[in-house]
Design brief:
The chain is mostly helical and 71 residues long. The chain is globular.
Length: 71
């Protein structure tokens, strides 16, 4: 089994244990991996890219990474 496949399987199992769904399952349903809600709008391109990686909506990304302070 290739390393990427092992990592992908580990991440899928972890997400399923933590959130009840994998990133791919959530994205195919159009919901956030973490909260299960429809993602809505993202603050910026980086947040959109993060959604592609984790499947987290903007609100859940803010919980994980903290909200960016405005100037």
């Amino acid at each position: 089994m290739a390393m990427n496949t092992k990592i992908d399987n580990f991440l899928d199992n972890l997400a399923r244990d933590l959130f009840g769904r994998t990133k791919n399952e959530a994205q195919s349903r159009g919901v956030c991996t973490w909260c299960g809600e429809v993602p809505g709008k993202f603050k910026d391109e980086i947040s959109e890219k993060e959604y592609a990686i984790t499947g987290f909506c903007q609100e859940c990304q803010d919980k994980v990474f903290g909200e960016e302070e405005e100037d």
